[in-house]
Amino acid sequence: MAGSWKMQAVMVVAAALIVSGVFAFRYPGYLYEIVDRRPVPEIETIEYSSESLDQTYLLYVQLPPGYGQSNKRYPVLYALDGWAATRMYSRAVLPLIRRREIPEPIIVGIGYKNSGRVFAGAIFLDGRRARDFTSTPDPAIPRSGQADTFLSFLDDKVVPFIDATYRTDTDDRAIGGYELGGLFSCYAALSRPELFQRCLAIDPRFAWQDEQIFEVEEKAAAAGIPLNARIYFASFGDRAFTNSAVAFMADTLRRREYPDLVVEDAVVSGRRQTATVETAISDGLRFVYDSPTR
How far apart are CA 40 and CA 70, in angstroms? Predict the structure, then answer.
């Protein structure tokens, strides 16, 4: 009986090892995630002011695991909507890093002082977003339509500051935003393609001011501006019909046949808003970094 029990135990252990080996072979990323226990640095908060917009911003910098123990340079992911976006991107990015599905980016969230650390509600109804993220003013929203000024602030001030402060790869920058932030992300990719090489536009509000973003795209195409980027558009499942402009934008960019532009558009669904956004972020990151192991 003792021998039989030992034999059964050996067989169970052997079976477990075989299953683990097969799983690790087919899904090596999950094995990496289990063994990668590098600590994640705390988010750094930096005040940074813009004279042109008369606004004090908060930069939330999330360094990747192992940053302090390495000498390498890292790509940078700029996330609009500050604290909320930084936390969401961090939750989405960390598993992908640990599974080695994407490179290890430095995340820089850009938010407003005194806006509160909330995800939904006030932060997305904040008039400062309409000021910074739209390129055409809405008469009903004072100071809206200053996207180009905000983009210049990023280009001339924020990006050089981050590059001077951290070990960044200056040839690998991404930008991501949700709703009006997604609209701005697309605007930035079209207007200054040399600034961002990767773009995530999550449920972008292309309907703003009669879909003026398409005029921006037409002007960029007419000017012969070369687009060298990977752009990911996401529509939410319950808005897929009303947000058909997203699919149209993706198709328009594909028809231009830019040699160095790769575009993906997807419909993402979920039971909760935060979960849906995080799913879109994860899928978008896999696409724009184009380095999955699975």
Answer: 14
